[in-house]
From TrEMBL:
Keyword Transferase attributed: yes
Annotated signal sequence range: none
SMART domains: CoA_trans (SM00882)
Protein name per Swiss-Prot or TrEMBL: 3-oxoacid CoA-transferase subunit A
Molecular function GO terms recorded: CoA-transferase activity
Amino acid sequence: MINKIVSNTAEAVADIFDGATIMISGFGEAGSPVELIHALVDQGARNLTVVSNNAGSGHVGLAALIENRQVGKIICSFPRTSISVVFPELYRNGEIELELVPQGTLAERIRAGGSGIPAFYTRTSVNTQLAENKELRSFNNKEYVLEKAIVADFALVKCHEADKYGNLIYNKTARNFGPVMCMAAKTTIVQARKIIEVGEIDPECVVTPGIFVHRVVEISNPADESKLVAEERRYPWK
């Protein structure tokens, strides 16, 4: 089996290319791979399409990637929250494109992509602006909207523990989009709080099998994004 451990975050994201589609895990700050995102800021790939639950908070993590003008389009459910300051301004100025997707539909589009399902029908968004220009079909006298699967070139994911073969377990709800994003990306890059010995993870507890993971980097003391946002602390590239 392949040892998937890489030595640092810069090495982990080195081959992300201009124009790539990238899935980024996280529900707010929970499960957000802050260190991998910051490494991507330093790496400099541009014109990225990002698939995420939200559009970042404050000036750190995903918000920093957007603020550095590296994201051309974001596909997400919650582009604006009470602490979103970067995305709203860029969107109003026409500097970034938005595809708004209901949260459950977003998760299912990613899951479908990872499962080889090209599209599916859902009742969500029927008779709303989000259904415009999409195929409609009736089942049992109810109307459904056709939604297409999402796949990505890369996924950046945070987990709690991993072994060298890429088997992952998560910390409670910090799992959120991580498992389905791992499945739906050509290359999955994971930051783990701890890399443990093979066999220390009970096979019954593995959430993401190593077959879906390509690189793992250990970040034993990951940033607390909520604290960074609260402090408005900025990183060296600023």
